Amino acid sequence: MELIRSGKEDIIKRIGPISISIGLISSLLVIISLFVFSDLFYAWEAKTLDYRFKLRGNINTDPGIVLIDCDDRSISKIGRWPWDRSWHAQMIEILSESEAGAIAYDILFGQPVDKRSDEALILATQKGKKVYYPVGFELSNEDGRKDNDGETEAIKVFGYQGRPIEKAVYLKVRRSLAPFPSLSNVSKGIGHISANRDRDGIIRRVPLVVDLDGIPFPAFGLQAAAGYLDVAQDSISIYPGKEIILKNAHISEGRRQDIRIPIDQQGMMLINYAGRWVDTYDHYSFIDILEKAQTADGMAELKNRLKGKLILISNSATGFDVKSVPIEVDYPGGGIHANIINTIITNNFLKDISPGIKIPLLLLIGIVSALLCHIKKWEKKVVFILLFSGVYLYLGYLLFKYMGIVIDLFSPTLVIIASTLAVSLYQLNLEKEMVARLSGEKKMVTDEMTMIKGRLGQKEMELGLINQELSSLKTEMDKTSSGLIEQMTKVGELEERLEEESREKERLLKIKKELDDKVAHIFVHSTKQDFSLKGRWEERRSECARYGIVTRNERMLKIFEEVKKAAKTDYPILILGESGTGKGLLAKAVHTMSPRGDKPFVVVDLPAIAENLIESEIFGHVKGSFTGALSNKIGRFELANEGTIFLDEIGDMDLSLQVKLRRVLQDKVIERVGDARPVRIDARIISATNKDLRAEIRGGRFREDLFHRLNVISIELLPLRERREDIEILVHYFIDKAGIEYKKEIRGISEAAMKALMEDGWSGNIRELENRISRAAVMAEGDIITEDDIGSDKQEGDRGLTEDRDAPDRRINVEGDSVFLVLMRKNLFEIGKTAERLRLSRGTVGSRFKGICLQCLLKHNGDIGSTAREIAGDHTLAEIASDRIREYYENIIGVIQGYSDPEDAVSECRRRFKNIPNRYMDAIEGLVENYFDGLKKRSI
Fold first, then answer.
1. What burial class does residue 805 get, using C-beta atoms within 10 Å of its C-beta: 0-12 exposed, 13-18 middle, 19+ buried?
2. Cα–Cα dist 706/683, whole Å
3. Is the dihedral of CA 571, 576, 579, 582 positive or negative?
4. Pseudo-torsion of CA 560, 562, 567, 573, nearest 10°?
5. Is residue 298 classed as helix, strand or coil in its secondary structure?
6. Greater confidence, 293 or 614?
7. Is the pTM of this model over 0.70?
8. 354-376 residues labelled b (16+ CB within 10 A) or e (exposed)
9. pLDDT at 789
10. In what helix (H) or strand (E) does residue 504 lie, and over which residues does it extend?
11. Which H or E run contains 671?
12. Tens digits of per-residue pLDDT, 884-901?
């Protein structure tokens, strides 16, 4: 046993720090994978960002941004694309006249095409002052330009010259498609429109700065936003891997401040997409602007709407310049620039967490996941781990929505899964180790228990033979005086031998008690990980378990605290409770915890003793006091001297015996049957009943003076239906016991079976539950108890092997007791052995077997031979069964022979055979009626 305890303590000490280590290792493996498979992790994290965009929905955009769309309607009126550049010149003139704050013209005007229209565009751009044009770049991570024409040279002036790029890893320009030089020279700024597509083709980031022949060159959106915010080129600072600062930006009338744009080492900025294209920004059709500008009122309206605004003109016609973005598959390219500009001028940036935060966060998540695996109930463990994951994911969403912080979601989720699986596997291995130790301990204890039981049985037999020989020798000495010295010597030897064997028996009983405690301890340890409590309740639960009381119900634990106090006294205790609630177990616990714990504990099961023998069993008798009293007999009270006597079902005691019991309580003396000499005894009395004794007193069936003497300390046990949290732990406890009892490996019970047990009414309480599990263990075909194995209250096998003395009258098919009969046959119809196997009293088992036999006898119309063959199920046992059946039937005939009225005979049988379960009383009534019917026929 110490091995198990030390092993359990060792596991508890090891599992904490090792679990944390496993959580850290799992996190480190994910972190290493994060660097080794960076593209894969980035792809999955990018997907989580897309879901956050969609979940968040649309956000407000800056009202200063206005989009003019070269849409399908405009193309249908102006003509197919590309349009003559004079249309664009006209648009710039209209916007300039409307006093637009800045014009970002997202149309790439390459080589000159027509002198007249080119000149018109140049002139309009020159007058417009703040007109920005795009340049197209082919970008690469590698060095080496593939072109170096005059157009590219002309736009270098718009780069951030003089800014160092040594610490940056900007994307490098390999090819370019710039506006024709004359147009570039008159524009306010040029910015690149090159997208940075991820491997899945979706644009999530934009390189705000690229490397153009060693010059940091801005993106089109950055250039337009800086111009709109009135930030000069030399007021822009770049810090690769950190930020771009737009110094002294004009935010609103009379208000300026620095805008800090977060970028990575490549100069990338996360684009904060405002929402779907059609649902965001103010949109105007290109043709509508042109048409409105034809009238003075229209121009006045345009000036009112567009004055001071940043105007972005782009091609949004179907099939032209569409890209995939997180919120839409076909998104106009101009919309991407609009979102870049909106992100900058609203200062609504998305910020990635740095590796300095990301790695410790993953380590912390691994540790927390590992610690959550310490929750003992797997259902709670799963719930808390899912809750932790859900809270983290939700926190990630909230940080994104309200603070613009983008934390990783995929890699932390992977850490949670990895840590949980790793720690769970580790715990599983530890549990297997513990189960292996427990199994070895169980086998050792049960083997020793079997040996002790055998030796106890042998001692009982030897003691009986010695007592018989002593009795015979003393009788012979009374009759004759010949050989007196020799006989006295022999008596002395026998008495000495009797004392020695009695001491050996006491020693074996003490060993058996220790083994019982060990078995209970092992059973509780095997389920402790699932059912332990907190604080002092766990201490109480463990203490209860040492006495075989399996509970985690707080009311029961409080009752146990009362029992501990009562056990220290010598006062009589009355235990109340329904049948099967464990009154006998509690009585044994009281005795064990009392100062009398090392003295005898004698149980008197009153309903199990024949009515005419109860007084003799309890108080003893002298030789010749009644027919069959062939020798002196020591009663149960004398056997319990200096110890404890437990009177079970005291409510069934006859009134005449109640008077004698009251005298025992009052005077501490008994009188054997046939002997007037008082015998002083010192036995503590514990009694129990499932009846309402106050009601029995009112009905004249129980003496009030006896009740008050027995009820000095009263303890009432809860029915199982009021302590349902105990059902599961009791099920596992009884599975362990049944597995050892029937030498069958039962690993557990199915969810459906457990659910059925949890929902049962349990009128038979714990005894019914134990018997249902015992039956299930016998019937189970595999190593898992199923719903079919446990049966149902409404099916025949409803009570399994449970006594149902108080059930309503009903006829029961004999086949319904098939499991009970199987066990009776295995034990050759020996009541004692079957009772021991079922952990029931002899009276309970005997009464039920008698009822089954009488039910079957009625079925076969009184034919004992046919009845015996059915009960035996095997011709080799038929003779034994026949003797029992004949005895039972003759008992009935003996009772009713003195009666002439069948109803009176039935009433007497019901009184005489009240211990037989009510469900078999119909059979007795039927046999009585058949008997009287036979008498009538013979008289005729």
1. middle
2. 16
3. negative
4. -100
5. helix
6. 293
7. no
8. eeeebeebbbebbbbbbbbbeee
9. 79
10. helix 484-531
11. strand 669-671
12. 888 888 888 888 877 888
